[in-house]
Design a protein that fits this description.
Blueprint lengths: L17 H18 L26 H16 L5 H14 L22 E2 H16 L5 H16 E2 L4 E2 L2 E2 L10 E2 H17 L3 H19 L9 E2 L25 H20 L7 H17 L23 E2 H18 L2 H18 L10 E2 L17 H8 L9 H7 L2
Antiparallel strand pairs: 1-4, 2-3, 5-6, 7-8
């Protein structure tokens, strides 16, 4: 069993250079400044367009509000003026506007005549993440929101029998979807690690390990360490899922290199969290993190003649959706940074530098702010999958995570630093 991990850095690493760390901080501050325009006076956060203006014809989304609340809570923990009030604004909206007071849980969007009443594990993971970060930041009302979210996840979504989360239910929890997904489970791992730290409840870390064991050490390992995304209720792979609609925002057909990168970092966070808590960390966490990173880089990076990660590939590892999503590049640099810290291997440092150069050249919008959320195969801004710039969550974490330890999770690490 692994007994320790390295939190030192090679002296030549960008992560050890004050100039790079200043640049990361400046980029993060700029994202927070851009995101402030998403505040809706009536509550929650709206969908921003490419110039940073709210898009009035998009119904307010719980996901956007939860991600913004999480981000502003992290910014508040760093002492950015105004961020705390914005986190409070998000907490209030999650407690009062998007919640289902009759049956419990959260709607996907502001309730209305045309809104969906489906209760999604993916969304609830983000509500829990937002609540945990706001609680770590000491924001009023956040603890009650966190307790509520943790209870819903534990009683409705967590399956002790399956060792993973159930995908979704109808409004009154009487019917569940005949589908199981890796994406919702991946973000549940992210939320569970935060819950373990903020609630001081190791059981959430153990649940995260169970999910990783099933979805990565078993399923992904059987697919050359590319993440198998879609399953039936017996956890049998459904390899042709959404083949007719391959560019789905959350359930695309085939294999998603960006998720392998995101999982790579999460495995290292999980390993470090287990060790920090005095729990055993299996050796495969590090080995699988490397394998996921290498597989994603091989099949996803610059495979069609231009720099950037393609969104998806098929089961023969050929590109399907060639568009480049901003979140993939953000997860790529975060994973590379984590592997630099954990292993000090040169190849990860090289990737970290290469991908930040790519982000600065193509993704950061140096005119209007934030990052372009999507580029086409020629690295020109596109909107075939995502419109506007509604999400600073991925980009902000990409600027923040390289400056933090692998454990504890971000909000707890920031709270304990002061």
């Amino acid at each position: 069993m692994t007994t320790a991990y390295s939190d030192s850095l090679p002296p030549h690493s960008w992560l050890a250079r004050p100039g790079h760390l200043r640049w990361l901080t400046q980029q993060g501050d700029a994202l927070v400044a851009f995101g402030k325009a998403a505040r809706r006076p009536e509550g929650g956060f709206g969908w921003l367009d490419n110039t940073g203006q709210q898009t009035p014809d998009v119904r307010p989304q719980t996901l956007v509000t939860a991600r913004m609340t999480h981000t502003f809570a992290l910014a508040a923990l760093q002492g950015i003026p105004g961020a705390g009030a914005l986190a409070d604004h998000g907490v209030t909206a999650l407690k009062e506007m998007f919640v289902d007071n009759e049956h419990g849980g959260w709607f996907a969007e502001l309730p209305g005549a045309e809104s969906s009443s489906t209760k999604e594990a993916y969304l609830h993971a983000f509500v829990a993440l937002a609540a945990s970060s706001a609680t770590a930041a000491g924001r009023p009302g956040a603890q009650a929101l966190l307790d509520q979210a943790a209870d819903i996840i534990e009683t409705r979504f967590w399956s002790e029998t399956e060792g993973r989360v159930v995908e979704s239910y109808n409004r009154d929890w009487s019917e569940s979807e005949a589908y199981r997904g890796a994406n919702s489970n991946m973000h549940s791992v992210e939320a569970f690690l935060a819950l373990a730290d903020v609630l001081k409840a190791p059981v959430w870390r153990e649940r995260a390990l169970s999910i990783a064991q099933h979805l990565i050490h078993e399923a992904a390992a059987s697919a050359d360490f590319l993440v198998v995304e879609h399953f039936d209720t017996s956890w049998q792979q459904v390899r042709d899922y959404n083949k007719e609609t391959p560019a789905d925002q959350f359930r695309p057909y085939g294999l998603t290199p960006g998720h392998a990168l995101e999982w790579s970092r999460l495995l290292l966070n999980l390993e470090a969290g287990l060790l920090l808590a005095g729990q055993e960390a299996p050796d495969w966490l590090l080995e699988d993190a490397k394998a996921l990173f290498d597989a994603a880089t091989q099949v996803g990076w610059s495979v069609d003649g231009a720099p950037g990660f393609v969104y998806t590939v098929d089961w023969s590892h050929q590109p399907v959706v060639r568009n480049r999503m901003h979140w993939v590049a953000g997860e790529a640099v975060a994973a590379a940074a984590a592997l630099v810290v954990r292993t000090q291997e040169e190849r990860f440092e090289a990737c970290y530098r290469r991908w930040w150069d790519y982000i600065d050249t193509y993704l950061i919008d140096h005119v209007h702010g934030s990052w372009h959320h999507e580029l086409d195969e020629h690295n020109t801004p596109s909107e075939s999958v995502w419109s506007g710039k509604p999400d600073i969550y991925h980009a902000y974490q990409a600027t923040l995570f390289p400056m933090l330890p692998l454990a504890p999770t971000a909000a707890t690490a920031l709270a304990e630093a002061y």
